[in-house]
Design brief:
- The complex is a heterodimer of chains A (about 80) and B (about 200).
- Chain A has one domain (about 20-85).
- Helices cover about 75% and strands about 0% of the residues of chain A.
- Chain A has about 80 residues and is mainly alpha-helical.
- The radius of gyration of chain B is 18 Å and the shape is globular.
- Chain B folds into two domains: about 1-125, RNA polymerase sigma factor, region 2, helix turn helix motif (Rna Polymerase Sigma Factor, Chain: A, Orthogonal Bundle); about 140-205, Winged helix-like DNA-binding domain superfamily/Winged helix DNA-binding domain (Arc Repressor Mutant, subunit A), CATH 1.10.10.10.
- The longest helix of chain B is centred in the middle third of the chain and has 24 residues, at about 90-110.
- In chain B, helix 2 (about 35-55) crosses helix 4 (about 90-110) and helix 5 (about 125-140) packs across helix 8 (about 175-195).
- Chain B is built from eight helices and no strands.
- The chains are: A mainly alpha (about 80), B mainly alpha (about 200).
């Protein structure tokens, strides 16, 4: 007879329930989001007027450019623009 | 305390801890900039990271979400620093634990409490159980799809016999016996991967 208890196997399956899909999707889109950030930062470095617009109102500037101004994106962008 | 889950979607209807690629192969492909591999890596470890934050450290949903995103952001940024590609799982676990502790620490700083004194710091056996749960899910991924679906739906998604029956096109009255048969199959696969259990061991006994 096996020493493994199937009730415990069931409980262990239950310990790893799915993470909320929105969280998973956001993490999966990280490479795309990073590429978008890289483009914005590169443009801000090359275009003084665009950089000024970004710094004046980051959220509105991103919306105008078709980017979703998600909190983490805004935080990351502020950090990177401040580093420049 | 648990975050809301929208896990009824078809995309989430099966265990995603697939075994098509080894961890090492997956990491290598991520490092080469393969977006599809990255999505698979997130899918493979998402439940584990979530469980450590929510069950292990009992973080509230908004903090657990921050930790969850921070973990994957750091994994993405630091994949090049991983010395052994097949060690990605303990690396992610350690990163998650560290970020959870940082969260608790920042919350306790204001309260003037030591983080070690907090009830929310999980005992090692909780984290050990989560490790073992991951092993069980890897074994689960080797089962036929119908078994994978039924066990994951019942145990991990907490779905009723009726819901499972409706989703899989099976009479609700047959679900219990199918779960039982699938658990037996899982036990066989799990033993094949881990060796027979010993009564004195810390394994699934």
């Amino acid at each position: 007879m096996s020493g493994y208890d199937i009730e415990r196997l069931g409980r262990l399956i239950g310990m790893l329930s799915p993470a909320p899909r929105g969280w998973v999707r956001a993490a999966q889109e990280l490479p795309t989001a990073r590429r978008g950030l890289d483009e914005i930062v590169a443009r801000a470095e090359a275009d003084v007027e665009f950089r000024r617009t970004l710094l004046a109102d980051l959220e509105a500037a991103l919306l105008a450019e078709g980017y979703e101004p998600e909190r983490r994106v805004l935080d990351e962008l502020r950090r990177r623009l401040a580093d420049d | 305390m648990e975050a809301p889950r929208d896990d009824g979607q078809a995309a989430a209807s099966r265990s995603k801890l697939t075994t098509e690629l080894t961890d090492a192969a997956l990491v290598a492909r991520c490092r080469d900039g393969d977006d599809e591999a990255w999505r698979e890596l997130v899918e493979r470890f998402s439940r584990y990271v979530y469980a450590i934050a929510v069950q292990g450290f009992r973080l509230p949903p908004h903090e657990a979400e921050d930790v969850f995103q921070d973990v994957f952001a750091r994994v993405f940024e630091r994949l090049d620093s991983l010395r052994e590609d097949d060690a990605v799982r303990p690396w992610i676990a350690q990163l998650t634990r560290r970020l959870c502790i940082d969260r608790l620490r920042s919350g306790t700083r204001a309260a003037g409490t030591d983080v070690e004194d907090l009830a929310d710091v999980p005992a090692e056996d909780v984290l050990g159980d989560l490790e073992q749960a991951f092993d069980v899910h890897e074994a689960l991924a080797e089962l036929p799809e119908n078994c994978r679906e039924i066990l994951d739906s019942f145990f991990a998604k907490d779905e009723s016999y009726r819901t499972i029956g409706d989703n899989l096109g099976l009479p609700a009255g047959t679900i219990a016996s199918r779960i039982s048969r699938c658990l037996e199959k899982l036990r066989t696969v799990f033993e094949g991967r881990n060796g027979p259990a010993h009564p004195s061991s810390e394994q699934v006994t």
